[in-house]
UniProtKB/TrEMBL annotation:
Signal peptide: none annotated. Residues 8-66 form the TRAM domain. Gene3D superfamilies: 2.40.50.1070, Nucleic acid-binding proteins, Vaccinia Virus protein VP39. One of its GO terms (biological process) is methylation. One of its GO terms (molecular function) is methyltransferase activity. This is 23S rRNA (Uracil(1939)-C(5))-methyltransferase RlmD. Its EC number is 2.1.1.190.
Length: 459
């Protein structure tokens, strides 16, 4: 930052700002005396009074003090919760414009990392979600005792402050009503709930997954200890009051600061799995199994990934980061063989059972990291000519990219949930591959998240 400007400004100062574009995290971007300013909840073409929140050497973090002229992209009917909890970061933008800005976020990421010939990439229009609200099939609700009251809901955006929720625009109705009934049961039974100040209490989170196809619920209680007081009573009350619940599990996580899930999950009542239908295939889902959060849009995502892969009868397909086998199993009937790799052992067990459930005979699954198992397959004279990668937000492992570039499979499809790591990975993949097109897909309406399918072909 220009030192003169630095000396002129301090936190709390205000200045007029016109928002020019959207940033890779969905924030509005403007320029004040040639210095870049990031403003959450601001939209291109907003004219605002910006208040400085943080000053840095070469950028400013601000917030909206006042909107002088509202952008034409603004949604006039913003849900009240959008200013209170995470998961609604784009709710202030009209839906058709959310789609446009998601493609812009993808372009911003490419512009930041500049993979080979990125200016010429064909970015197709973002595919809209079947539902823009009530689409999420799973929720993790923290439950806490604060000032003598039991609160259950979601955290305030960017904090650990819990907001008690009775509704959530993106969450399915059955999930929300079940959560409130369970909270009431917990209160009635006086089950000790986590108190963050006293570091006491047993129950810390209620996780609910909903099957759209079968209208059933899988409930998991995350507890701080093995002991789960009044387990039998809670099961009986849930059975009586929420007949849609078909499975109740307990996950034990004694760590108050680490990840949500602990290592041990045990079924305490009902079905071992929740079932869901994806493109006519049935999948068993254990509590920790990964499934796209937008069930209805997942069918469309997989159709588009299939189109990009263009499967043929003699293809040998590697389904990297296969999870519970969803993508590979939906493709198995169209290829010669599927090899799935996943680092989580429970997911591979689920994948094997899902292949059996759907009578898939031409699929094999391996536990391990993709960068280690893939070279082993090549050593064993298994040479996939088609590879589909669907990595977590951190993107592809560097060693996996090495193997792909060395082996050079003819067909490569990258399904990404993070435009930044996608753009970074493309800087290496484009050494040997040409990007045919990028297809953004909206899996998370009302948020800046965008899923992208990239069709790559060997140079």
């Amino acid at each position: 930052m220009n030192t003169n400007i630095t000396s002129e400004l301090k936190v709390g100062d205000r200045f007029p700002l016109t928002i020019k574009r959207i940033g890779i995290n969905g924030e509005g971007i403007g320029f004040f005396k040639h210095v870049i300013v990031f403003v959450p909840k601001a939209v291109p073409e907003d004219v605002i009074v910006c208040e400085i929140v943080e000053l840095h050497d070469n950028f400013i973090n601000g917030k909206i003090h006042k909107i002088r002229t509202a952008s034409p992209y603004r949604n006039p009917d913003v849900p009240e919760l959008a200013s209170k909890v995470g998961g609604l970061e784009f709710a202030h933008i009209k839906y058709e414009d959310q789609l446009k800005f998601k493609a812009d976020i993808l372009r911003e990421s490419l512009d930041k990392y500049k993979p080979y010939a990125y200016q010429n990439y064909r970015i197709k229009p973002t595919v809209p979600s079947v539902q823009q609200e009530k689409y999420r099939n799973k929720a993790q609700f923290p439950i806490q005792e604060i000032d003598g009251k039991i609160l259950c809901g979601l955290y305030k955006d960017g904090t650990q402050d819990l907001v008690d929720l009775t509704e959530m625009p993106t969450q399915m109705d059955l999930t929300m009503s079940a959560m409130r009934k369970i909270v009431q049961i917990i209160k009635d039974l006086n089950i000790p709930v986590f108190n963050p100040e006293k570091k006491s209490g047993i129950l810390r989170m209620i996780v609910i997954r909903e099957s759209v196809e079968f209208n059933k619920l899988q409930v998991t209680f995350i507890t701080r200890s093995q002991k789960f007081l009044k387990e039998r009573q809670i099961i009986e009350k849930i059975q009586a009051e929420i007949p849609e619940v078909s499975s109740i599990s307990q996950n034990i996580n004694p760590d108050d600061k680490g990840s949500v899930w602990g290592d041990e999950t045990k079924l305490i009542w009902g079905d071992e799995y929740l079932q869901e239908d994806i493109n006519g295939y049935i999948f068993n889902l254990s509590p920790r199994a990964f499934l796209q959060l937008n069930s209805l849009q997942t069918d469309k995502l997989y159709d588009l990934a299939t189109e990009a892969l263009h499967p043929e009868a003699d293809d040998v397909l590697l389904d990297a980061y296969c999870g519970v086998g969803t993508i590979g199993i939906t493709l198995a009937d169209q290829v010669k063989h599927v090899y799935g790799i996943e680092i989580i052992p429970e997911a591979i067990e689920d994948a094997k059972k899902n292949a059996e459930l759907n009578e898939i005979k031409n699929a094999d699954y391996y536990v391990g990291s993709v960068d280690q198992v893939y070279p082993q397959l090549l050593t064993d004279d298994i040479h996939p000519n088609a590879v589909i990668v669907d990595p977590p937000r951190v993107g592809l492992d560097a060693k996996l990219i090495d193997t792909i570039l060395r082996h050079r499979p003819a067909k490569l499809v990258y399904v990404s949930c993070n435009p930044s790591t996608l753009a970074k990975d493309l800087t290496r993949l484009t050494n040997k591959y040409r990007v045919e097109y990028l297809q953004p897909v909206d899996m998370f309406p009302q948020t800046p998240h965008v899923e992208t399918i990239v069709k790559l072909s060997r140079r």
